[in-house]
Prior knowledge:
By secondary structure, the protein is α+β, with helices and mostly antiparallel strands. The chain has one domain: Glutaredoxin (3-Layer(aba) Sandwich), CATH 3.40.30. It has 6 helices and 8 strands, in the order H-E-E-E-H-E-H-E-H-E-H-E-E-H. It has helices at 3-15, 48-51, 66-82, 103-112, 126-131, 161-175, and strands at 20-21, 28-29, 40-41, 55-61, 87-93, 119-121, 138-142, 147-153. The longest helix has 17 residues, at 66-82. It is globular. It starts with a helix and ends with a helix. The model is unreliable at 3-17 (pLDDT under 50).
Amino acid sequence: MPIFTVLLAIVLMTAVSPNHAVEADALIHAPAFDSARNVWINSEPLDWETLRGKVVLLNIWTYGCGNCKRSIPWLKSVYSRYGERGLQIVGVHSPEFAWEKPRQAVAAAVEHHGIAWPVMLDNGLGYWTALGNRYWPAFYIVDKQGRVAGYFFGETHAFDGRARTMERLIEKLLVD
């Protein structure tokens, strides 16, 4: 493999995976859910007032994304470990392709993967755009006051560096 190809791959991997916690003075509020335009699975429409006091892990995904599907086991483990301590996962299904948009198809994927948390259908990519998101999967960790405390991008597995960093942030926010 030519050295240029290797260097380009390294540059692209670091350019598209900016993962970090946000400094306290730079926290911004998570965008409001547009429940009038979006359909929900596993839940009535949610809003940030209802979620106040919980740490929220927003998972931006689409069921046609292999990296998203391979991250679900980690999400399920996080939900089982931290859910009773005040963590709420909210899936935001933001489809890339038209065939990923039908509610029935998303509901079938949610059931197939055993996803128990609320999932909002973001077919118009309004929430995706409000976050300034560009990646699947993406994870936004929101503090108890509704502020984005960290964001992370890419396939995630238990015990990998990204998972450990997110879990440390979740644990810190649950205690705060």
